[in-house]
Records
---
Amino acid sequence: MTDFQSPLIELRGVVKNYVTKAGSFPALQGIDLDIYRGEFLGVIGKSGAGKSTLLNMITGVDQISAGQVRAHTNGTSVNLDQLSENELTLWRGRNLGVIYQSFQLLPMLTLAQNVMMPMDLSGFYHPRKSKERALELLNMVELGEHIDKYPSEISGGQQQRVAIARALANDPPLLVADEPTGSLDSVTADHIFKLFQRLLDDNRTIIMVTHDQGLLPRFSRYIQIADGQLVGEGIEL
Amino acid sequence: MRPRWRKVLSDLIDNKARTILVVFSIAVGIFAIGVIAGAYVIISEDMGLSYAANNPSNIEIRMDDFDQDLLNTIRNFEGIKEAEARRVFNLKVRIPGETQWITVDVVSMKNFDENKINLLQPVTGGAAPEKNQILLERDVLEELNISPGENLEIQLRDETIKEIIVAGIVMDSSTGAIDFLAPPLAYITSDTLKFFAEPDQFNRIFATVETGQDDDEHIRSVIADLTDKIEKNDYGIGRTFRSKTHEHPLEPTINAVLGILMVLGVLIVFLSSSLIANTLSALLNQHLRHIGVMKLIGGQNQIIFRMYLVQLLVFGFLALLIAIPAGGQGAYWLAQYIADEMGFSLLGYRIVPLSFALQLAVGILVPLVSGFIPVINGSKVTVQKALDGDRVRRSSGEDSEGKEEGSRFEEIQVKTTRALADRGIRIPRQMLISLRNTFRQRGRLMLTLFTLTMGGAIFVSVFNVRDTLHTYVDNIGNYFMADVTLDFERPYRLEEIKQYAYQDPRVTHVEGWSYASAEILFPDGSTAENISILAPPGGSDLVSPMMIEGRWIQAGDVKKLTVAEGIYDYYPNLEVGDTIPLKINGKEEYWEVVGLFKFIGLEGVIGYAPYEYISREQNLANRSFSYRIEIQEHDLASQEVMAKDLDAYFRAQGFRVQEATPGLSTLDSAAESLDILITFLLIMALLTATVGSMGLAGTMSMNVLERTREIGIMRAIGATDLEIIRMVIVEGLLIGLLSFGLGIILAVPFTYLLSNIVSDAVFATPIAVVFTPAGYLIWLGLVIILSSLASVLPARNAARLTIREVLAYE
Ligand SMILES: Nc1ncnc2c1ncn2[C@@H]1O[C@H](COP(=O)(O)OP(=O)(O)O)[C@@H](O)[C@H]1O
Ligand SMILES: [Mg+2]
């Protein structure tokens, strides 16, 4: 389903240097990359290769040192580095769902409330509507019976599914996942991938970071990075 | 509920201890402000009104005996609206069958129903006595337990003891309001005077002025004209007093005292703010990850900011919920207490809008202002920084500096430890860990130290001020060193009295003193103020003055005097060697001021001149009405016994004794009323100490919470509960002791400041500051106890953590 005509995100000469006491450390050294609508892009590399840094550039969570990240979502095109903090937050809320290895659910809220939170913060949905939508999403990730539980009361795999439901709350075209299965066993991870597949069928784009070479066959396309540089790429097998 | 408010609510509920700590510390400040502001308003409204309600005299003149004719003259005098004449004399009374006599001032009136000035308020029983009955002012009840209808035993001058029935208890908020050291009052009608063997004549005038009842200058000028008139009629005048109609004579003093308390209240608010700032920056630190998540999923800065702002407002609201009712009640209670002490009544419980508004403002502003910076910083934090706290902190510029200092600190510590070890002194490893932990969160440590140090400094200062005031009162006592003062109704030869007095082996020294009542005049001849000139013999040892300038009196002085610094009110540029105009013994004369001394600045001016000169001028050479007697034992009990014995002895020998008073009785009650003030200061000091130790408790639990993982690791490698508890408590104690060290330094300027403000309010003069170890010792003990207590709970929580919980902690 990938639409190779119009990229969703374009990275051009992206450089990220971390300034540390020891001096400037180049975590990304000029990355050029297009991310297309509908693809399941895997970003593969060893620990410390710069995968998370690359994701942070795409989500706008950290500042780019040189180069450009352009996004063409919801009919508009923006240069991420030209947005203010608040505009970025708003853009992210509308266009991106982010999923982390460590789930990052708010422990004091129930599952339903966790999923409602993005809708509440962005204000895209009326509060009553957002409740309905949260239930739908939790049903979709097969957690419809646990909506009033707290994150600490469910398993890791279930928490990650809640995180996915939350990432989908504002109906974003793009999902960004940093090692989403990293702390899950293979059966549970399988479950997550099945979920991803359904989202892809639903015309969403997913970028997923992993250090696990074994996951390669799961992606529609993959890139490989080492020491902050693109060292290879491939298309679905 | 929207998820964001759900989160705010959960944050408030989940950490109850923190919510309570913050709410309580805001509440303490609001409470203190509310109590003081409320009491201030209630008192300034009610004190004046309740005082004015009884039509207080503007003018009181104590003078020779006079009759209705003179009263009529005075009533018709220009500028006088109403005038009443009374006879006032003192008397000993007791409950029949008991041994303890107390002195009361008996006021006789012609007609209680027609009385227009210094009205009495009935409390219980009748409001007007019948013939041969007596009314008591309610102050008497503090010393005698008696009710209307019961009998009171009285002792007349000639030692006869009689019984008289108590008609009722009244409140008199006017007579004696100026002079809160005066004995309590009792009232009879003029036709009861015979029963007391007193002449049916008046000796006091109470009058109101026609216009300008609240104009001190005007009242003064009416008094000057009136006393001229009375003296032209050949009557001698003792003293005059003036007071405004709508201002209780003690109101300025009480307002000054409340002002001091208010300053402390504001300080408490200030301290609690720093405690809140501390707690909130810890809270936001802990919430860093939550903030990061919310930003990641679309929460803009202002939304996050608003969420925490609401949390702050909820803190304030909860604090108001506690503090407003408590503060209102406390204000009324404080006002009631002061009203009871000062003898006026309140108009009733009410909510004071001013103090309500102040409390509301404090309750809203304090959390907002003190939480603003932490909340702004927290809501501005970037997602990256929030989600990846550790790594960012390690690499970002600002904190690396702190890290370096930290390692420098460790370096110093290692060096000192080694140096100490070389000398055979070993600091236990546990102690070293506590020491290092103490300095880990420097910003937090600073704020905690600040709060606790201020609390301690105020605490210690209050004790110093207490001793300062007491020392001053003792020094004032050096003007009244006689053990017994023996006053006669007529003058006796010095030799004669001495001869009799020395019969008693306890008597070691006898002096006859003179006394002259005079007026200080302005250069234009108008009256400035009354002056009481005491005249001890030239070389008397019974006065040990606090000289400011010049010298003390000498036997050979002629028309020379030393005068209390109160004179500066009228002659601000007076210097030793200057002459001032006096009206003395009916003549206007110029006297040279040879010295100035310190004295309580209330109630007119006092001066000293030698007996040798004054007695000659009064044609009383070698004779005196009044004798000062020194005995072997100087305690109050011996003085009381001696006073009684001398009284009885001289009467038995046929002398006409007026009164024998033991030495320090009046000063004791002066010290007592100071103690009321000190009590309030101490309450405020305790409140500040409370806020300080709440700050410490908060800091300790934040420290422990943030080190949960570390404590877990320590446990995993075998640290026992006891070792962990000890580690935390030692850290708390270190902070406590550090604040003690800083506090005792800060207490020095605080003591000066506080004692200057207080002495200015109470004595109208700055006084020499005295430092006492008591405050330091008590605070040391308190700080040790408080800081151990403040750490015990967090320490126990730390020890209770299981390794599983620790690893689950995120
Ligand atoms: N905030 C930071 N400051 C300094 N160095 C960083 C920071 N974040 C990441 N790095 C470094 O950049 C490199 C890439 O990190 P990252 O993108 O997290 O790798 P990974 O591929 O494991 O996700 C690593 O060497 C890491 O140490
Ligand atoms: Mg990574």
Note: Residues A 51-52 surround magnesium ion (ligand 2) (CB under 6 Å).
---
Amino acid sequence: MSSIPSLSTRPPSSRPRRKVGPVKIISLLTLIVTTFLMLLPLFFMVMTSLKSKKEMLKFPPTFLPESWQWSNYTEIFDTLQFGTLYKNSLIIAVLSVIGTLISSALVAYGFARYKGKGNKIWFMLLLSTMMLPYPAIMIPQFILFSKMNWIDTFLPLIVPAFFGSAYNIFLLRQFFTTLPEEMFDAGRIDGCGELRMWRQIALPLSGPALATVAIFAFIYSWNDLLTPVLYLSSSDKFTLPVGMASLTSSRFRIPPWHLLMVASVLAMLPIVTLFAVAQKQFVEGIVLTGIK
Amino acid sequence: MKKNRKTFGTLFAASALLLTTLAGCSGGKSVEDVASPGSNSSSGGKGDKVTITYYTIDSEDRTFVEKLIPDFEKEHPNIKVKMEKAPYEQFDSKLQTLIAGNKSPDITSHYGYGGFAEYYNKGMLMDLTDLMQETGFKAEDYNIPEHLMDIYKVKDHTYGIPLNMYVTLMMYNKDMFDAAKLSYPPSDYEDKSWTFDKMVEDAKKMTVHSDDITKTQYGVDFTWSERDMRPLYFGADPYSADTWTNGGVPSETHFDSPEVIAAYHKFFDLIFKDKVSPNTEWSKSVAGQNGDPFVAGKIGMSVGGSWIMAGSNDFPFKVGVAAVPWGGNDKVRSPLFVDPLLILKDSKHPKEAMEFIKFLLTTEVQEKSIELSGGNPPVNTKAAETYYKHFEGVDPEDVKKVYEGAVKYGYESFNHLIVHYSQINDMFINELQPVETGHKTLEEVMGTIQKKVTEIIKR
């Protein structure tokens, strides 16, 4: 009852006014300028995707297209089997994300929760695998998958994700160690098994970290060029990066930059969408795990 | 919690299902593929079908071969050709991996960074001498000049059969010549008036220096072959003569000799003394990292590989082709870029591979390939007549003269003939960069280059 008169008697001027100091103005200006600079290449990419082939050769380059070639966006489907490339990349990336999430979270949970003998050594060993460059394992891995008769299938691109990734395990382990021990004790008292604690306590509490890992895994798989080049031979199994690389592969022709930019704009969409959807969780994940 | 459990379960089940499906797709070998090694180096008995793999770059000017395969398979019902391809940058990595993984392709070319000599010295190539005899291959049947066949011979053994031949030529911007009121350069290699000095003279008349980058233009861009080969243009050979007969391993190099340094000086004088050629920074700012400033219409004459002609229909100015001017070497004026077809040592079907090579070299297929590839120059001299007419706005007579002169005064590009060439080339780019930017003199860097070349060759 008393709250109503107090509200009505509040003078309009008492509303806290935000003070805009010079520091704030400078920081805002810096942010605007930096945002503009960061967006400039993106803008240039979109504009280039709408230019004609002849306009690409002009110097100085034009900023906006002289004539807007919207047909470039349909031409890419004639030049490359763009739909197929897109579909293949999506299948591989989505399955890789699922694989990475399941395997890395399980291993990371183990490293975070169990303090057994040699725990640290195993963890260091795991981390040291991050120092192995891909070319060092490229040929042995190819021989292995070749013996399994997996060449020219998606399997060599997906299955390794189901066996964990050192970087993501490290990232998730850092997160899992911050979870309060008491929750797991409570779970144990209620008769919860270890796997169930992982599934029903650790995972639901790790949304931000899992979102971060999902984005990293997706981007890695989406951009990977060398692995699909090595394992895939049939054109109908190629991924987006392989198809896009073919546009600039001739040493003897002027590359169709306008089409490459169309492909880049379209290839960017899933990553932008994923980031937009998981942005809140992603930023939180980076803050909580202390990983940049 | 229940929801989470359900989601987790669904995800796991979905991925397991998809993996199983994909595993199913991997399948076993098809009947055609099972032409077991050892039993099928011959054409095989009736009904035996063998699959050969043709490995190439994944770009339109290479993958067009796929369109020729049905005709070949119709002619050779026992042979199936499969195409394996990779982007340019990953070409060598994939080839090495395929060989190591016992999945060696049968036919390829040195389309990546590594040249013929690199492949030969790694023992990757099959000696084709006996195979050519066995299958009745004669170069003259395919109108391939004998001296082109010699390029890929080592100690009288043939390891590669030429397929395409790019030459070095001069392309010029007719609009810039007209504006400077200059007569066009000749396409005839025997025209004695066409010399390096005359070219510099013409270039000076077309060069405009301005603070406004859009107004700056240069008379000539003389990118004559790779950096280590350039002294040859003025008659100084930096590699010992045995290099060309022993598989590309020079016993001596002379990069610090006064003749070689003097030759390099003449090239750099175009940029720093005569100021008629652009430096690398300008070229990159106008045309991008790997672009050509000639295409932007800012260069009067451009000396380079004949592949530049393939895009000439799109240039926003009129173009012509001319002979590379005489620079002091009476024998060599045009580096050739002859791409051979190679059969790899681990090929399980060399005879069938040879049949496919023969098919690709026939006049009819070579002529067809020009159109399908968008202007690949055939090695077959009969098919070359069609090639000369391929470029709109460029006089076919000029293209013919330039090609014939280039072959007469040609020398195969060093990048195909010298061992560890990709490393030599990278080293040259790095070491000469301070000279190209004007921070060091040639005398300062050539000693180091000589030392490093020697080290690389010994690897």
Note: The radius of gyration of chain B is 25 Å.
